[in-house]
Design a protein that fits this description.
The complex is a heterodimer of chains A (249) and B (507).
Chain A: H1 3-29, H2 45-70, H3 72-78, H4 82-112, H5 114-118, H6 122-144, H7 148-164, H8 171-174, H9 178-193, E1 217-219, E2 228-231, E3 240-243
Antiparallel strand pairs in A: 1-3, 2-3
Chain B: E1 3-12, H1 21-31, E2 43-47, H2 59-62, E3 66-68, E4 74-76, H3 81-86, E5 104-106, H4 109-113, E6 125-127, H5 164-171, E7 179-183, H6 192-196, E8 202-205, E9 211-213, H7 223-227, E10 233-236, E11 241-244, H8 249-252, H9 259-262, E12 269-277, H10 281-285, H11 289-299, E13 300-301, H12 306-314, H13 319-326, H14 329-336, E14 341-342, E15 354-356, E16 364-367, E17 370-373, H15 395-402, H16 407-430, H17 439-447, H18 452-463, H19 467-470, H20 478-485, H21 488-491
Parallel strand pairs in B: 1-15
Antiparallel strand pairs in B: 1-12, 2-7, 3-4, 5-6, 8-9, 10-11, 12-13, 14-15, 16-17
The chains are: A mainly alpha (249), B alpha+beta (507).
Chain lengths: 249, 507
């Protein structure tokens, strides 16, 4: 087995399994530890300049990456006209630079503010390091290996598909420049640290908020009336009855 | 009619001496932990003043509570649901630590280990967050007793609507006036914190209305902190979870009063069950501003009404709770006697803690070194009945706190309290021998909406209550509730309940 086989044929499965199993275990057994761990209370002004570009830039770019990998046809169709290709590339680069600016502010904030430094753990620094490598290599690729949205689908989609079909073909990426390889490897690192660090808060994106009524009433005892709907809470707790809304606004 | 029960607390502000025993009892019991040092689930504010956190009533800034839009629909002031999720990365309406204070302690060790020197060693203040020396410039009761100050009283949001003339009077040194306002979570009927929580971690307990944060489900989005107009949800900076007053539910479940109420030196706090109609919450919260207070008071149901009793039974409220509701001292003050109001009902959250507004001495002026009371010379009775405008604490200010700026409910209450006071004075001082009062006194009571029996009852429950009179707790039947959640046989031999892991900060 070559090192390329190991890095691009074995590691993705190891980190994938880790990410899924540990996240599930953590969710079921240590849900208290799952939090965004916001430090806005301690420092707000620098956070404004860091957090918004970082989060929005990164989540939009990440979504575009997933679209490109899952439905590459969409990208191929879009990039049919050169003008639209330029538009997409410029948008991608701008978002990348925006996120880069954001993470730089966040790192500076951690080191310059005493209070934020107090709540900074080694795992926070690890997360920042991994994401920083990802953003830097991403921006590098956008500038140095232009039209990634065009050639990317041809290069990466077969490789990612080979992983998902459990017939890994690391040879597909063997000849790529090291910057591209680092970008991919740093994503594997991202997956590896994901379940063990605050990154896990990504899965808690509260989309259920849109579906629920404003108010929430919970009863300990099973009431004798249809006032509350039976339900169960997460974790190992016994069933608790979750109530319906009070004010349906 | 869906009847629900609410554990409610009543604060008799006329009796509060501002000693902060409640705050300290609460702090020692619940928030003496890392990350929670700055939290004061119970705090006592000097009013007029800016309170804790600073300027919490300024909803243009903090965006707390609910609002009624042009169509008459109820909306969170803070955000729409989409906005709530979008603002998770940065919440522009979140108070900063500076709005609270940098929690501090003192380097007491220096007193023992400091080098020998001419002066006595001092213990310097250090931050409880960073451990570094701090310059203390604010705190949870930093403006304690600074009722007339330029820095605090002048910036009180509730001073809006108080006329310049009255303001000038209040700021004059001889007339400086203040009273104390103890505050805990209001355990609202339409809590904005619950509505604002994207994760659905906050909920209202059905059996007693206590609003709680499920710490397992909280993800630290912090919207609850902004949405609560009373700023009674706090963010724990070390665990990354929100925390709030739990109304000492573990104490109530075992028949004990919450720590703040139990420890109250002035015995200003009363607790009991209130029944309300859950069907009316939305209607109440979205009523026009001039009907809002009345709508909220009307939601509270009479536990002696046969219809209510039947509906309560149908809603699953047990007889022990109904009996408790009938003996509730809070119900007596709030509904039977109409003496208490919620704090800032205009926030539309249906606050369920009630306040009896304070009486205050009459305005006096100093002329040629003599104190002159602004009362007609023929009336030495200190009666303010017809001249409440002469009360030192302006009625308008109290109205801004408790009745959405409407002076009428406040005048009504103060008049009742004054007439009870007059009645008792005439009975026990002026006519001590017979204990009888003249017809004029009875007319005075009737004018305030009271009779002799009511006046006597108000007097007794205000001044002579035993602990059993002040705190009437329903039987919680936790043993029944626990049996439903845990099979007693399968749990036999095991120890403890609740969290198996200590609530440590996640990575």
């Amino acid at each position: 087995m070559t090192s390329n086989d190991f890095l691009f044929g074995v590691i993705p499965y190891v980190v994938g399994v880790l990410a899924i199993i540990v996240t599930i275990l953590r969710w079921r057994m240590r849900q208290f530890t799952v939090s965004s761990l916001s430090s806005q209370l301690l420092e707000s002004r620098k956070l404004y300049w860091g957090s918004i570009p970082f989060h929005w830039g990164l989540s939009i770019i990440l979504t575009l990456h997933f679209i490109a990998l899952i439905i590459p046809q969409a990208f191929e169709l879009w990039n049919g006209a050169p003008l639209r290709l330029y538009l997409l590339e410029i948008t991608g680069l701008a978002l990348g630079l925006w996120a880069l600016f954001g993470i730089c502010v966040l790192i500076w904030r951690r080191y310059s503010d005493q209070r934020v430094m107090t709540v900074t753990t080694k795992s926070d620094l690890l997360v920042l390091g991994v994401v920083l490598v990802q953003i830097i290599t991403g921006v590098w690729i956008a500038i140095g290996y232009r039209w990634g949205s065009y050639w990317g689908t041809a290069v990466f989609v077969p490789y990612v598909r080979s992983l998902f079909y459990f017939q890994p073909n690391p040879d597909l990426v063997a000849a790529l420049p090291w910057v591209l390889k680092t970008h991919v490897l740093s994503f594997f690192a991202f997956l590896a640290v994901f379940p063990f660090t605050r990154l896990v808060h990504i899965i808690t994106l509260p989309l259920q908020y849109f579906a629920r009524p404003w108010q929430k009433v919970v009863a300990n005892r099973t009431p004798s009336t249809p006032d509350f709907e039976p339900n169960t809470t997460g974790g190992s707790r016994a069933p608790v009855v979750v109530g319906a809304d009070d004010s349906r606004v | 009619m869906r009847v629900r029960a609410q554990m409610s607390m009543l604060f008799h502000l006329d009796k509060c001496i501002g000693c902060h025993t409640c705050s300290v009892a609460c702090k020692n019991l619940w928030t003496d932990r890392e990350g929670a040092e700055y939290m004061w689930w119970n705090n006592v504010e000097t009013r007029p003043g800016t309170g804790y956190p600073v300027g919490w009533e300024d909803q243009d800034h903090y965006k707390g509570g609910w609002k009624r839009d042009k169509k008459g629909k109820l909306k969170l002031t803070l955000h729409s649901k989409g906005g709530g999720v979008a603002k998770a990365f940065y919440n522009p309406s979140l108070p900063e630590l500076e709005d609270y204070y940098d929690p501090f302690t003192f380097k007491y060790g220096d007193l023992f280990t400091g080098p020998a020197q001419e002066q006595q060693a001092t213990a310097i203040p250090i931050s409880k967050i960073t451990g570094q020396p701090v310059e203390i410039s604010s705190g949870p009761n930093w403006d304690d007793d600074l009722g007339g100050s330029d820095t605090y009283a002048k910036n009180d949001v509730s001073m809006q609507g108080v006329t310049q003339e009255v303001r000038a009077q209040m700021e004059e040194l001889e007339r400086v006036v203040m009273n104390y306002l103890p505050r805990i979570c209001n355990h609202c009927l339409n809590p904005a914190c619950v509505g604002a929580c994207p994760s659905g971690a906050i909920y209202k307990r059905a059996e007693d209305g206590v609003v709680l944060v499920n710490e397992d489900k909280c993800r630290g989005w912090r919207q609850c902190v902004s949405a609560c107009p009373y700023k009674k949800v706090y963010y724990n900076w070390t665990t990354g979870k929100s925390e709030k007053c739990i109304l000492c539910f573990p104490r109530m479940e075992t028949g004990q009063a919450p720590a703040c109420a139990h420890s109250c030196v002035g015995r200003i706090r009363y607790m009991g069950v209130l029944l309300y109609d859950a069907d009316k919450i939305e209607e109440m919260a979205s009523s026009p501003e001039d009907e809002l207070l009345q709508a909220q008071m009307d939601m509270i149901l009479d536990p002696n009404d046969p219809q209510v009793i039947a509906a309560a039974k149908a809603s699953g409220i047990d007889d022990g709770w109904m009996d408790s509701a009938r003996r509730s001292p809070v119900y007596r003050f709030v509904k039977d006697w109409g003496l208490a109001l919620p704090l800032h009902p205009e926030y539309r959250t249906g606050a369920m803690m009630f306040y009896i507004p304070p009486l205050s001495p009459i305005v006096s002026t100093i002329e040629e070194g003599l104190v002159r009371l602004d009362l007609p010379s023929e009336r030495r009775d200190f009666e303010l009945l017809d001249e409440l405008d002469k009360a030192r604490m302006p009625v308008q200010y109290l109205a801004n706190l408790f009745s959405i700026g409407d002076q009428e409910p406040i005048r009504h209450i103060l008049k009742k309290m004054l007439s009870v006071r007059s009645y008792k004075r005439r009975q026990s001082v002026d006519n001590a021998a017979t204990g009888q009062v003249d017809q004029a006194t009875i007319d005075m009571l009737a004018d305030a909406g009271l009779d002799e029996q009511m006046a006597e009852d108000i007097y007794r429950l205000t001044t002579l209550p035993t602990i059993e009179d002040r705190f009437v707790f329903p039987p919680y039947h936790r043993e029944v509730a626990i049996e439903e959640l845990n099979d007693p046989l399968s749990a036999k031999g095991s120890t403890g309940f609740g969290y198996l892991a200590s609530p440590k900060r996640g990575a």
